[in-house]
Structure formats: structure tokens, C-alpha cells
Design a protein that fits this description.
The chain has 12 helices and 16 strands. The protein is of the alpha/beta class and 373 residues long. The protein has 2 domains: 243 residues, FAD/NAD(P)-binding domain (3-Layer(bba) Sandwich), CATH 3.50.50; 94 residues, D-Amino Acid Oxidase, Chain A, domain 2 (2-Layer Sandwich). A 5-stranded parallel beta sheet has the order 6-2-1-10-16. It has a 5-stranded antiparallel beta sheet with strand order 12-13-14-11-15, sandwiched between helices. A 3-stranded antiparallel beta sheet has the order 3-5-4. Strand 1, helix 1 and strand 2 form a beta-alpha-beta unit. The longest helix has 27 residues. It is globular and about 65 Å long.
Length: 373
């Protein structure tokens, strides 16, 4: 069996690894001229780490990460406790996106990745799918996986009329910088006023990852740094200075990433007989739950478990969709409860409830999933 994966991001590369581990011949196509990662720090929860363990690269992933905890404080520095949840519901691994992407590309095998080759269209046949690329070439495969992000061109053909949409008023600023000249004694995530939250987390290699986001933001003015500094005051009690403000001020303008958050609306279907969506292509969501990559990694693992060299591709993809669409409907409910929590303590409690649900699910191994011919 041969699979074509569109997109060499974290989910696309993980899909390639999972499918190869199942004995499937895989080629990953990426429109960019090089493997690169958009963004800075990335949190991986226990369920994502379980997938990487199953794929044989868990130790390598942990070697480029720092164990961290997702606890929140209020602007006065008080811990927002969630006594009904255990320590494991707050624990995750912080990694740098670019380092993880490089690791995954090596695990897929660089020879199995085609760069500077964009997806154009596909045509399904009874027993295969023909994939056409922007350079004029084409390839026949048994299955096509669209893991090409929120702006997925595969989704545009498979589910027309469902483009990525703005999460109106939701913006995020972030960067990774050296800690030179700073004392960062701990990690700190703060739930502030005016629908702002932010903080900083130390990385495994002596850097610090800072972030700040705001729901229902007023129109943006000024530079990216000015925008972040304008909002950081909402995370400080009585206007006092803060380490987060110092980190933002010390970050070169060109290193600050700023994004309007984009969402993919709920889709009526994720698959056809020989095409499937995975990761943000299927369910891009707000990063306020910091679980998009983790959940997309689970998509990849499930596809790798359901698809087998001698298996029934349409049945496998139908089983994938039947599992994931209801799951993400529940994810959306839990995410909305966090976003619309009226107070910081309720935000923290709903967040812990989401992470508890996510990591407590029974992890199924690929051999439990496989759909045979």
C-alpha cells in the first residue's frame, strides 16, 4: 500500500511515521522549499508522548523538551488551585517546534519527503487516488492524507465551502529568547483582566518562551512589541512592573510572532473513500487550550493504526471519521467552557477539566484498530 501525505508539519510528519510503522510506503509532500516550523514553543501532553513512545521516538522527543506544568496565577501572583484534579492533569512537555519538526523529519526519512512541491488536486478512482502537484507531476496512491493545516487545500476540495475563519478579536503574541540578563526563577502563566492571559516558561536549553493573548481584542495599533506591552498591563496587579513585561521589552521586534487566531468550523465529514484530513486541516482550534498539536498527533496515530498494507482503505477511513468527529464535538464543548469562563478561577478549573478528560482516555494500540480487508 502507498500513502501520500500533504504537509510536512508536525501532524503530517507524524502521520508519515505512523503509516510507515504500519508497513505502508509513504511520501510526504511539502510546498515550502525547506522543512520549517511556524511558531515557537509547543506543549505536548501525555497522550501525545504515548503516541511517540508507540512510534519508537519517545525518548528522543523527551530529550529536546522540558517537563512543565500548566498551573495558572492571578495578576497578584496567587495560585489558582484546582484541588479536584491531580498533578498529572497539569503536566506536559515543552518543546521547540523547529527542533521537534527536524526530529520527526529524520524519523520519517528525508528521502521520503518532497520539498517545494505543492498540492494542486486529486482524483479518486475505485482502487486508488491520483494526486496532482503544482509542478505538473502526479502520483497514484492508495490513500491521501491532508495534513496541510488550517488553510488546507486538500480540505478545499474534499469539503468545499469550509475555509478557515477568524476567531474574531482573538490575537496572540509570542517569542523564544535567551535568558541572558534575566533571572527566571519559575514558570508562570497568568490569567488577567480584559480577557488577557500570558506568561513565560523556561525551555530545556536555557531559553524562555513567553506568550500573551487576548480574546475580544480592540483593533491593533502600533508595532508587535507595542501591542504586547499595551496588553501586558492587564496581567499586572496595580500597574506594577513584571518579568513578563521585561521579557517582551527585551525581545527584538523581528522575533515577536503575532497572529490573528484562525479556526476551522465543524466539518460535515473528514474523509471520502480514499482521502482523509488530519490535524488543523480537520479541526484547527483556538490555542487557549494548548492542545492542537497533541490532538493532531492522535489523529496521525489512529490513521496509522487503522490503515494496513492489506486492509480495506474506505472502511479504515470510515472508522477514523466515526471515532474523531464525535470526539472533536466534545473537544469543542470543553474548549468553549474554558474560553467563556467568567472568572480566572473558573478558567483554571475548566482548563484542568479539559486536560483531565484528554489524557484520561483509554489509549488504543495500532493492533487494536486495524481494519482488515
Amino acid at each position: 500500500m502507498r500513502a501520500v501525505v500533504i504537509g510536512a508539519g508536525i501532524v503530517g510528519l507524524t502521520s508519515g511515521i505512523a503509516l510507515r510503522r504500519s508497513g505502508i510506503d509513504v511520501v510526504v509532500y511539502e510546498h515550502a522549499p525547506e522543512i520549517r516550523a511556524a511558531g515557537a514553543g509547543l506543549g505536548l501532553w501525555a497522550n501525545a508522548l504515548a503516541v511517540f513512545d508507540e512510534l519508537g521516538i519517545g525518548e528522543q522527543v523527551r530529550a529536546i523538551g522540558k517537563p512543565s506544568e500548566m498551573y495558572f496565577h492571578d495578576p497578584a501572583g496567587r495560585l489558582l488551585e484546582t484541588p479536584e484534579f491531580g498533578a498529572e492533569d497539569h503536566q506536559y512537555l515543552l518543546v521547540h517546534r523547529a527542533k521537534l519538526t527536524d526530529l520527526l523529519a529524520d524519523a520519517v526519512g528525508r528521502d521520503n519527503i518532497r520539498l517545494a512541491t505543492g498540492f494542486q488536486a486529486y482524483h479518486e478512482h475505485d482502487d486508488h487516488v491520483t494526486v496532482r502537484f503544482t509542478d505538473g507531476t502526479s502520483e497514484d496512491a492508495d490513500v491521501l492524507v491532508g495534513a496541510d493545516g488550517a488553510y488546507s487545500t486538500v480540505r478545499a476540495q474534499l469539503v468545499p465551502g469550509f475555509p478557515a475563519q477568524e476567531h474574531r478579536g482573538h490575537h496572540v503574541w509570542r517569542a523564544v529568547i535567551p535568558t541572558t540578563g534575566f533571572t527566571v526563577p519559575d514558570d508562570r502563566l497568568i490569567l488577567g483582566h480584559h480577557r488577557c492571559r500570558g506568561g513565560y516558561v523556561r525551555t530545556y536549553d536555557g531559553h524562555v518562551y513567553w506568550l500573551l493573548n487576548q480574546f475580544d481584542s480592540p483593533p491593533l495599533t502600533g508595532t508587535r512589541k507595542e501591542q504586547a506591552l499595551e496588553r501586558v498591563v492587564h496581567l499586572q496587579e496595580d500597574g506594577q512592573n513584571s518579568l513578563l513585561a521585561e521579557l517582551i521589552a527585551a525581545t527584538p521586534e523581528e522575533q515577536i510572532l503575532q497572529n490573528q487566531i484562525m479556526l476551522v468550523p465543524p466539518l460535515p465529514h473528514w474523509v471520502s473513500a480514499r482521502v482523509a484530513l488530519a490535524g488543523d486541516a480537520a479541526h484547527a482550534m483556538s490555542p487557549h487550550i494548548t492542545a492542537g498539536a497533541t490532538l493532531g498527533i492522535e489523529d496521525a496515530a489512529l490513521l496509522g493504526g487503522l490503515l494496513t498494507p492489506a486492509g480495506d482503505v474506505p472502511a479504515a477511513l470510515a472508522a477514523y471519521q466515526a471515532t474523531q468527529i464525535p470526539r472533536y464535538a466534545h473537544v469543542a464543548q470543553l474548549s468553549a467552557a474554558v474560553e467563556h469562563a467568567p472568572t480566572p478561577p473558573e478558567f483554571a478549573r475548566h482548563y484542568a477539566a479539559f486536560s483531565h478528560w484528554m489524557i484520561s482516555r483509554q489509549t488504543q494500540h495500532p493492533e487494536q484498530h486495524a481494519v482488515r480487508a
